[in-house]
Amino acid sequence: MADSAVPHDQPAGSSRRDFLELVAWSTFGVGTLAAIWPLIDSLNPSAAVLAVATTEVDLEPIEVGQRVTVMWRGKPVFIGRRTEEEIEMARAVSLDELRDPEPDEARVQKPEWLIVIGICTHLGCVPLGNRSGEPRGQWAGWFCPCHGSHYDTAGRIRKGPAPRNLDLPPYRFVSDTQVLIG
Amino acid sequence: MSTELQQPPFKSGVLRWIDERLPVLTWAYNELVVYPAPKNLNYWWNFGSLAGIILVVQIVTGVILVMSYTPHADLAFDSVEGYIMRDVNWGWLIRYLHANGASMFFALVYIHMFRGLYYGSYKKPRELLWILGVIILLLMMATAFMGYVLPWGNMSYWAATVITNLFSAIPLVGEPLVTWLWGGFTVANPTLQRFFSLHYLLPFVIFAVVFLHILALHQFGSNNPLGIDLSKKDKIPFHPYYTVKDVFGLCVFLLVYGYFVFYAPTAFISPTNFIPADPLQTPTHIVPEWYFLPFYAILRAITFDFLWIVPAKLGGVIAMFAAIGVLFFVPWLDTSKVRSARFRPIYKWFFWLLVIDVLVLGWAGANPPEGWYLVAAQLGTLYYFAHFLVIMPVLGKIERPLPLPTSLSDPVLRGTRSQTAN
What we know:
The complex is a heterodimer of chains A (182) and B (422).
Chain A: H1 16-41, H2 47-50, E1 55-58, E2 67-72, E3 75-81, H3 84-92, E4 113-117, E5 140-144, E6 149-152, E7 157-159, E8 171-175, E9 178-181
Antiparallel strand pairs in A: 1-9, 2-3, 3-4, 5-6, 6-7, 8-9
Chain B: H1 13-21, H2 24-32, E1 36-38, H3 47-66, H4 76-87, H5 91-119, H6 127-149, H7 154-165, H8 174-182, H9 189-220, E2 235-237, H10 238-263, H11 293-301, H12 312-325, H13 330-333, H14 345-366, H15 371-398, H16 410-413
Antiparallel strand pairs in B: 1-2
């Protein structure tokens, strides 16, 4: 039945029917993808979510040696105004000793201000050490109580199971006392 | 017939292994590929598959909408008109597909039903097939009504109030029943939340009943425009013949659906529903969605107490539910042995009269119940019931049908020889 429409002098696979079938299936495929895309894309962050995707922080009230936590996209961001001693500690260490080698200069825009995402790169807990009185780990940075990761004063992983240094959020200094995260 | 199952031609051993243990592929192959369909089905036979497709569209878009919708009286309106329509990526498209999809669904199903009435598709042995269809219609009506309430606009609110108040017409238990339906003393947040739950549930119930509908259909196979029982040589496999025809019909349907979604997305939405629900402000002119208008006209046509015992309010409610209830009995109300109206010269005219009658009822339902509109609604209601309860049974007895062909090839090859109506 099916090949009655194929002229006998034509080689198989090049009939008009094959061509129509190819065109029909291509159109159907493209149409289906185009129809499914809005459904998938609707699950991406909405305009309302994107509209609150940046956080502006006033640095004025933060004193030397003080650490504060701000929220950015629903996550904690640690802002630390480091002491001279903390900066020195972060810069004194040799990169060979680090699991995720990164010089301190690459992790800060201004040496005084360390801004990191406060989520342990192991399994997502919030490390201790940002509030006064909390344990700061062996390298005076942060200590994650979940599985015992120690971070130094540049937020770099020094000991424990975490694979990476604390992530850095995108940010820029709008003025000397204002920082825009996101 | 579903009794002789054919094995699909498997190319993969894995599929064969699965199918031996779980014969879903054999089932799908027999119902969707080899299913022997009459050669002579016309385009009126496209609407069943179209209705099935739009049901899937409604479920998919509905599931996605729920992800951004908030079922709470204080937040529902903003979550639809504010969040979904403005902030969610493609939210406007998905919502308009869903809202207009409901209208399309009813349009397709009404055409599908009139097709059945014209060609006698409800007659022996397809009575349960028809009854399952009426059950689907009832479920659709409940689903559509509750879905209409969810955006919590002012028409949503008052539609919910009016429709739930129908039940207050029931003697003795009416008032407590309505309080129970509302979960309070008016339509309010508890009402919205239970409607939301049921609006999510019922489409899946419809989906299940659609499966039963198809099971019943494939037991004896599709009816056909001649209405006669066809032999095997007058049937062709469903695939590719009717898959291709259905896809062509789908393309035409998508043009109509697309026109409304992209160029007239609010054509079916009352302007009043862009105002948030206000329990203190009834809209001056309450009308339901177009697909309920004929039934709404019947509800309002009963303006008089019936036989001194049934008050007008209860009478209207009974008449409205009876308008759908009477459909359950159509297989037995129609006493004619001949299925297709092609061979029923008188029934054919009454069929078109019923179509006009339903359109008149719809027009009357869209207008205030006064003056000529009310008269039209009352005459329309009278004819509607007369059609099913008087004309159908009597006509079947007195009408002389045209001679029926014995097979599809018969009228062409041997024009004169024919079989009389059994």
